[in-house]
Amino acid sequence: TTIHCDHLIEARSDGASDLRESLAENGEVYDFLRSAAARYGAGFWGPGAGIIHQVVLENYAFPGGMMIGTDSHTPNAGGLGTCAVGVGGADAVDVMAGLPWELLYPKRIAVYLTGEMSGWTAPKDVILY
Fold first, then answer.
1. Position 129 pLDDT exceeds 80
2. Residue, of 105 and 93, whose pLDDT is higher
3. DSSP assignment of 69-117, as one string?
4. Which one in 2, 17, 51, 107 has a CA-CA gap of 20 to 30 Å to 115?
5. Distance of alpha carbon 43 from alpha carbon 2, whole angstroms
6. Are 81 and 75 in contact (CB under 8 A)?
7. What is the average pLDDT across 45-68?
């Protein structure tokens, strides 16, 4: 379990200035998150430690791994072979409390694609269509 503080830093001018502004504006929030991490034994990635999406790829994702996260980009870890699923806060709290996380296997369906993709169309465009 880890806590990341990247989403409270707004990109306005440059990294150092933006970090200073965020520390001034959100210091109380950062202090609370730091204390919660210490109290409950969670890892803490403080302000300026990196964007969660990249931190996860560089430190937690690996082929055959499994991960849940409350960030909508959690499935990005799938690019490195991790089964990574984004969940809501209630599911995350259950897992942090030691309860099992359950996911129902969806009914399988078949999708048949015909024709050809053209131009700049990518596979993701097909699944989002």
1. no
2. 93
3. ESSTTGGGGGGGT-EEEE--HHHHHHHHTTPPP--PPPPP------S--
4. 107
5. 4
6. no
7. 94
With a pLDDT cut of 90, the percent of the chain lying above it is 68
- C-alpha distances in Å from residue 106, one per residue of 10, 13, 115: 38, 45, 27
Alpha-carbon separation of residue 110 from 92, 105, 107 (angstroms): 31, 15, 10
Predicted TM-score of the model (pTM): 0.72
Under DSSP, is residue 49 helix (H, G, I), strand (E, B) or coil?
coil
CATH code matching the domain that covers 52-129, chosen among 3.40.630.10, 3.30.499.10, 2.40.160.20, 3.90.226.10: 3.30.499.10
d(CA 91, CA 99): 9
Give mean pLDDT, residues 51-68: 94
Half-sphere exposure of 54 (CA within 13 A, CB side): 6
